[in-house]
């Protein structure tokens, strides 16, 4: 019993270290309680599904997370799996802000850690579970860089880290990004506030989109 309690305590301490959240900045107990149901799909660290069926939400700008939660709740962005986690749970504005701040501060390294001989199995397991490496996508990297810096960087940042209401793209699953691009182009998801098909995305050729996605997979090494 004592051994099990020690392991649980160590697990909690390591979890906080992995997530990297200052206890003074957030109500961690409340944040973890609010995030709890989300982990069923997005994982304990917000890394999403291994095949991109669920997006990475850790590290996203907090304003973007808030905006999307609100959109799911009022169904201006239709997503049936998200309905019970936003509207039926009746997430209020405070919980949304807390959840967004919690996710924004989770860091997922892009390189496996270097372990010490003193690291036990639990420490090694937790450290490896948070490593997130997106496989390189095929495409013309130089063209992707040129297109991205010309048409995408003004909103998503020069290194794809996102800003304000615009999401982080680097470190996101390539097939998830492609799925969202298809949804924008098919008017299933609005790409701007006006909903008009006048943004940069609608001017890109399919080959350019492929190249941009390939370019984004080359940026993740600079994340950590």
TrEMBL record:
Post-translational modification: Binds 2 heme c groups covalently per subunit.
Signal sequence residues: 1-25
Species of origin: Candidatus Accumulibacter appositus
Main location, first listed in the record: periplasm
UniProt-annotated binding residues for heme c 2: 152, 155-156
Keyword Heme: yes
Compartment(s) where it occurs, according to its Swiss-Prot or TrEMBL record: Periplasm
Protein keywords: Electron transport, Heme, Iron, Metal-binding, Periplasm, Signal, Transport
UniProt protein name: Cytochrome c552
All residue ranges annotated as the Cytochrome c domain in the record: 26-107, 139-220
Native organism taxonomy: Bacteria, Pseudomonadati, Pseudomonadota, Betaproteobacteria, Candidatus Accumulibacter
Binding-site list for heme c 1: 38, 41-42, 82
GO molecular function per UniProt: electron transfer activity; heme binding; iron ion binding
UniProt xrefs under InterPro entries: Cyt_c-like_dom, Cyt_c-like_dom_sf, Cytochrome_c4-like, Cytochrome_c_Oxidase_Subunit
GO (cellular component) term, any one: periplasmic space
Pfam family, one: Cytochrom_C
Gene this protein is translated from: cyc1
Taxonomy, superkingdom: Bacteria
Xref: Gene3D superfamilies: Cytochrome c-like domain
């Amino acid at each position: 019993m004592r051994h099990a309690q020690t392991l649980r305590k160590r697990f909690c301490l390591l979890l906080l270290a992995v997530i990297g959240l200052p206890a003074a900045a957030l109500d961690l107990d409340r944040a973890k309680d609010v995030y709890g149901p989300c982990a069923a799909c997005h994982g304990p660290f917000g890394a999403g599904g291994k095949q991109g069926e669920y997006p990475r939400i850790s590290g996203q700008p907090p304003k973007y997370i808030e905006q999307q939660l609100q959109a799911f709740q009022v169904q201006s962005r239709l997503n049936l799996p998200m309905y019970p986690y936003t509207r039926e749970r009746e997430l209020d504005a405070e919980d949304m802000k807390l959840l967004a701040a919690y996710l924004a501060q989770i860091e997922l390294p892009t390189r496996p850690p270097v372990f010490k001989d003193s690291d036990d199995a639990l420490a090694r397991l937790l450290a490896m579970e948070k490593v997130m490496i997106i496989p390189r996508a095929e495409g013309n990297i130089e063209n992707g860089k040129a297109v991205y810096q010309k048409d995408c960087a003004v909103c998503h940042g020069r290194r794809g880290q996102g800003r304000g209401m615009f999401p982080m793209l680097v470190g996101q699953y390539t097939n998830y990004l492609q799925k969202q691009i298809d949804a924008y182009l098919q008017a299933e998801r609005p790409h701007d506030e006006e909903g008009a098909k006048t943004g940069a995305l609608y001017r890109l050729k399919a080959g350019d989109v492929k190249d941009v996605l390939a370019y984004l997979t080359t940026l993740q090494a600079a994340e950590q």
